[in-house]
Specification:
Structural class: mainly alpha
CATH class of the largest domain: Mainly Alpha
Number of domains: 2
CATH superfamily of the largest domain: Winged helix-like DNA-binding domain superfamily/Winged helix DNA-binding domain
Number of helices: 6
Strand content: 5-15%
Distance between the termini: 32 Å
CATH topology of the largest domain: Arc Repressor Mutant, subunit A
Shape: elongated
């Protein structure tokens, strides 16, 4: 089955922290805590523990050269999205991209711009597959 290794699959809480690191770049524990706290999230010690676990799992890097350790995402947002999507595609949609797309578009209203992007991608994929 395609997907993350069990030890490196981000949990929901880890994904929240990765979102902060992707949006803000290098962050101290305090930086991460402040963002999560504004979103109604976690306490400082929880953020610290989560970042330590993420470091151990290889999801974050840590610069220990300063008094306040600085963390960065060790995995890209795009790669994480692709891994989760691939895993979900296999487990939930029997490996069928069309089922996933039909379900997503049937239940959620896409903006005109998103529909244009989808059409452009479909046209490109159609051309790549030939007549």
């Amino acid at each position: 089955m395609t997907g993350f290794k069990t030890s490196s699959r981000p949990t929901e809480a880890e994904l929240e922290i990765l979102q902060v690191l992707w949006e803000h770049g290098a962050c101290t524990v305090r930086d991460v805590h402040d963002v999560l706290h504004r979103r109604g999230g976690t306490g400082y010690t929880t953020a610290l523990k989560m970042l330590q676990i993420m470091f151990d799992k290889g999801l974050a890097t840590r610069d220990e050269s300063q008094r306040a350790h600085v963390y960065r995402a060790a995995v890209s947002k795009e790669r994480t999205q692709k891994r989760f999507l691939s895993d979900m595609l296999q487990r939930v949609f029997d490996g069928s991209p069309s089922r996933l797309v039909l379900q997503a578009l049937g239940d959620h209203k896409a903006s005109r711009e998103e529909l244009r992007e989808i059409r452009a991608l479909l046209n490109k994929l159609d051309k790549d597959h030939g007549p």
